[in-house]
Amino acid sequence: MIKRAINGKHIILKGFKNVKIENLQTLFDLLKNQNKNYCIQLFNAQLIAGFDHLYFACLNALKAFEEDKNISKDLAVEILLYASGQHQINKAIQMLGVTPETKDIAMLIVSETPEASLQALEKIEQLLKGEQCDRILRITKKKVQNIKSALNIKEAELRAAKRESEEQAITDLLIERAALLATQA
Question: Among 11, 78, 132, 158, which has the minimal tally of Cβ within 10 Å of its Cβ?
């Protein structure tokens, strides 16, 4: 579990593997009926390029709300949009969203207080029947291929961004896409 403060909010990022979602609708209903003190977003962890990917998506979403430039009315959805680099909610969900077949999940909680984050974590852990595993949040060579395909990253784009490694280039590209989305909002 990774905990950080960002723009006066508290975030928790946690990974789960071998998840068995018994009732996807119940899970989504819980996410929709969130307490005003926190929001929760779930992602297909196989398409997340590490902590920085979601940290900067969250940062851009929070800034969008602060500056009244948000695309969505919901912070959790706004984070999903920035993580995917998309303006369209349906595309963002298709790219990074959770389905009944999703086995590895990245969970991001944003709250007003650390206590609210932990309260949200307890609620969602009860529904995610899987093993807690933050290793699945790390970017790997296998994930690079999945991310390139799902998020339509071209080889030329990757070569232009490559500095240290292909994994770092993917993370940098996704952060850059989120920043570009912020300028277009």
Answer: 132
151-157 long-range contacts, CB within 8 A, separation 24+: 151/47, 151/84, 151/85, 151/95, 151/177
Residue 165, domain extent: 2-184
The H or E element that residue 29 is part of is helix 24-32
Q: Mind listing the pLDDT tens digit for each residue in 154-171?
A: 888 888 877 778 899 999
Question: Among 24, 13, 14, which Cα is nearest to 127's?
Answer: 24
Rounded Cα distance, 52 and 43, in Å: 14
Two structure tokens written together for 117:
């984050």
Distances in Å between the Cα of 31 and the Cα atoms of 9, 34, 162 are 18, 5, 36
| 75-111 per-residue burial string, b: 16 or more CB within 10 A, e: under 16 | bbbbbbbbbbbbeebeebbebbbbeeebebbbbbbbb
- What are the structure tokens assigned to 53, written together? 């990917």
Mean pLDDT of all residues belonging to the chain: 90
Q: What is the CATH number of the domain that holds 35?
A: 3.30.2380.10
- Tell the burial category of 147 from Cβ atoms under 10 Å away from its Cβ (0-12, 13-18, 19+): buried
Return phi, psi of residue 21, to 5°: -85, 110
